[in-house]
Amino acid sequence: MKKAVLLFPAILCISLLQAQQSSANNHQAVQQTVIKLFDALSNRDSVSLKAHSTADITLYEYGQVWNIDTLILKAIIQNQSANFKRTNSFDFINTTVDKTMAWVTYRLQSIVIRDGKETTVQWLETVILVKEKKRWKVKHLHSTLIKRS
């Protein structure tokens, strides 16, 4: 009986540690999807952009509602600057992961160089992701502009 009493807490601790590790891995996978979406924007890569978003993605930008075609038009097609460079940095505030849905809130700072001019832009954003074929994809992105300098 004493062995069973000692064994139960050990099994419980091991189970909790595995659950925490799994949760951390899920959070990291979700956050990496967000980062890769912005890497695709930085690289002006519409194929990768589509790979990290759902077909029916909705973006709430500057008081407007955009779809993937609008994002590609404004961020890639109309962005023909030869010396364009965008560097993103993230400060993740909250990440919540469920079985097939996740939501992330973060601060995003982008340093953009276009036509020799450098601009720093800061946003507060919330992203909702869904799991499609075992991969996280961005379904909704709401962006609030904080500062542009």
Describe, in plain words, how this protein is organized in 3D.
The protein has a single domain, classed as Roll (Nuclear Transport Factor 2, Chain: A). It has helices at residues 2-42, 46-51, 68-77, and strands spanning 53-61, 64-66, 85-97, 101-114, 117-132, 135-148. The chain is 38% helix and 46% strand. It has a six-stranded mixed beta sheet. The termini are far apart. It is an alpha+beta fold. The radius of gyration is 20 Å and the shape is globular.
Summarize this structure as a short list of keywords or feature phrases:
single chain, 38% helix, Nuclear Transport Factor 2, Chain: A, alpha+beta, 149 residues
Q: From the 3D coordinates, which CATH architecture would you assign?
A: Roll
Helix content: 25-40%
Strand order of the largest sheet: 2-1-6-5-4-3
Number of helices: 3
Shape: globular
CATH class, named Alpha Beta
CATH topology: Nuclear Transport Factor 2, Chain: A
| Assembly state of the chains shown | single chain
Number of domains: 1
Q: Helix and strand string, N-terminal first? A: HHEEHEEEE
User: What's the N-to-C terminus distance?
Assistant: 69 Å
Radius of gyration: 20 Å
Broad structural category: alpha+beta
Strand portion: over 45%
Task: Profile the largest sheet.
Answer: 6 strands, mixed
**Total number of strands:** 6
Mean pLDDT: 88
Runs with pLDDT <50, length 5+? 15-20
What layout of secondary structure does this protein have?
Layout: H1 2-42, H2 46-51, E1 53-61, E2 64-66, H3 68-77, E3 85-97, E4 101-114, E5 117-132, E6 135-148
Parallel strand pairs: 1-6
Antiparallel strand pairs: 1-2, 3-4, 4-5, 5-6
